[in-house]
Every structure is written in structure tokens, then in C-alpha cells.
Amino acid sequence: MDSKLQLLTQIAQGVAVHFGSQCEVVIHDLRGESMESSIVFIENGQVSNRKIGDGPSEIVLETLKKDPDLLKDRLSYLTRTEDGRILKSSTMYIRGSDNMVDYILGLNYDITGLLTIENAVKSLISTGETAGDHNREPKKITHNVNDLLDTLIEQSVALVGKPVALMSKDDKVQAIQYLNDAGAFLITKSGDKVSSYFGISKFTLYSYMDANKEKA
């Protein structure tokens, strides 16, 4: 274990103890060749039912796709577990001397019970006025890359707003571009699954991925 990971582990253990069993603290290692087992440390993994050796989240894939200079820590946003619990999450990028992201330190606090209390209080104090849009769907936390790819495909279809059978070429291009931007094709053999799902060849898939570059 290198000194940076050792320090992160010490911090993660302290944060987990300080905030208790509802606070999951996870460390992803982005230096390895395989992203399919990026979790190298986790405390209170029962929050998302993940363990050491599990795969990356959407945030990890997005990190690998983006210019490191443009990455900023994401603090206090909502995510959702596979069993429907809502988490308040933060993602911090830990960089090396070359400014590349070596590790991701993630905090996921289960606020499901607190939201239940909040909703009960709201029903008592609500005046019927709208206070902005707070209904944005939290991103799902998945256990492995296959589940993550399925989730990203679902999101691409939802973005287009119609089933694959009714999609035009432009619709499929939009969906494929979404998957590409989300880092879906960093997952091993994802091209085969996506091609099959959208009913296109691998050659067509690559042309759709490059469609925006050609327009530029």
C-alpha cells in the first residue's frame, strides 16, 4: 500500500467512525489497468451492499473520460442504491504529481430515514406553493460493471424518449453519444452488448460514436 492510499485509508476509517454506520466511505483506485474492480477500500459497505473488488460507479467512468484539468470535486449530491435507499454523496478527486486522478474518495450517507421524517414534517407545514424542482432522479449505485452498463443503456433510452424499435438513426446516434460521453465503452466488451441492444453492427456503432466529431 503506497503512502497516499495509506493516508486515505486512515481518513476513511476516521470519517466512518465519526459519522457512524449510515456513512459509507469508499476508495476507488484509478491507477490499475482494469477498472472492473476499482474499489480497494470500503467502510460501512452495507450502505450500498458493495465490497472490495467491486466495480466502478458512473462517477468513475466519467472521471476517466474527462480532461483531468476540468474535474472538480462533486459535493453533496443525491444517489440511489439498488434497493431504493437515497444517499447524500460527495466525490473527491485525489491527484498525483502529474495532475492525473489516482484515487477517488467517496462519501455516501444514507438519508432515507431522515427524508421520511422530512416528508412527514412537510405535510404539516406545506402551503401548497412550489419551491423549485427537487425531483431530479438520483444516480443508481451499482455493484459491478455489467449492472452499470445496463443502467447506462437504460438512461440512454430514457434520454431519447422512445423504445429502440421506434428509434431513427439520429435517435440511435444520440443514445450512443450519451453512452460514449458517460464512459460506457471503457467497460470490457461493452461494444458487443450495445451493438446487440440497438440492433446495429460494430462498424455502425463506431461510426455513431464518431458522428459528432465529423460534424465538428
Automatic annotation (TrEMBL):
<protein>
    <submittedName>
        <fullName>Transcriptional regulator</fullName>
    </submittedName>
</protein>
<dbReference type="Pfam" id="PF08348">
    <property type="entry name" value="PAS_6"/>
</dbReference>
<dbReference type="InterPro" id="IPR013559">
    <property type="entry name" value="YheO"/>
</dbReference>
<dbReference type="InterPro" id="IPR039446">
    <property type="entry name" value="DauR-like"/>
</dbReference>
<feature type="domain" description="Transcriptional regulator DauR-like HTH">
    <location>
        <begin position="148"/>
        <end position="209"/>
    </location>
</feature>
<dbReference type="InterPro" id="IPR039445">
    <property type="entry name" value="DauR-like_HTH"/>
</dbReference>
<dbReference type="Pfam" id="PF13309">
    <property type="entry name" value="HTH_22"/>
</dbReference>
<feature type="domain" description="YheO-like">
    <location>
        <begin position="5"/>
        <end position="119"/>
    </location>
</feature>
